[in-house]
């Protein structure tokens, strides 16, 4: 985020992209070698968006920067991306705070479970009741499945291409937020292109020429193909998960491109606010979910400890 914020600030103060990149090795000496190589590539004619891709930014972010650069809105786009990443960092801090207490409880439970397995259970090895063991085994399997799913989701989020977005948007917990995020990016880009006087056909053509696999490129290609097959724009908007339904209302207003551009940017702002609220709700719901799992694990540990004792007492 610091890099995007620095570039946006540099452009605002009258520096060019080339001059801004020359300052990066001084500001971030640990990555000086990488920044110097990127600076040479920029001087050699490589595009700014491609260089940002080499710095680890996703295809979708690279495409958004390329669109902004083409339309002369790079400073605004960098500021918008900085705002988005600032929100992400703020929510991650909240998530860390919400998970701190459950993580401590889980660590304590693991230590207690190891103690029970090595010392307590040995005393009741002859007991035939394994209800607690089965419950704990089921919870461990569930935790492994949950962790695997989380790693897959993080992998898809790192890619941020069309297929990854589409898969994530179909998931029950994170799906609505991913859909809002994709719709926000597309609505913002539509607003920029409409402000530059692009028609629908030109927007599809321009988008389809962007970074292969990015959200904008794949969506532009799909919309163009569906229009050629005879589908109406209304049908396409209803079917595509990353085209906001409010765009249908804009089509019916009959506004000119400048007004449509402003309205698309307003929709983008609304979607950003919605995205923020959805992420906050997700984070708030994570801690109760963790406590439910911890409660089930505690029940399993009690069963593992008490049922063998109860069985031994019955044998007296």
UniProtKB/TrEMBL annotation:
Topology term for the membrane: Multi-pass membrane protein
Keywords: Cell membrane, Membrane, Transmembrane, Transmembrane helix
InterPro entries xref list: GspF/PilC (IPR003004), T2SS_GspF_dom (IPR018076), T2SS_GspF_sf (IPR042094)
Coiled-coil intervals, chain numbering: none
Location of the protein in the cell: Cell membrane
Keyword Cell membrane: yes
Transmembrane segments annotated in the record for this chain: 99-122, 134-157, 289-310
Main localization category: membrane
Type II secretion system protein GspF domain segment(s): 4-116, 189-308
Gene3D superfamilies: Type II secretion system (T2SS), domain F
Keyword Secreted part of the UniProt annotation: no
GO terms under cellular component: plasma membrane
Family statement: Belongs to the GSP F family.
Protein name: Type II secretion system protein F
Organism lineage string: Bacteria, Bacillati, Bacillota, Bacilli, Lactobacillales
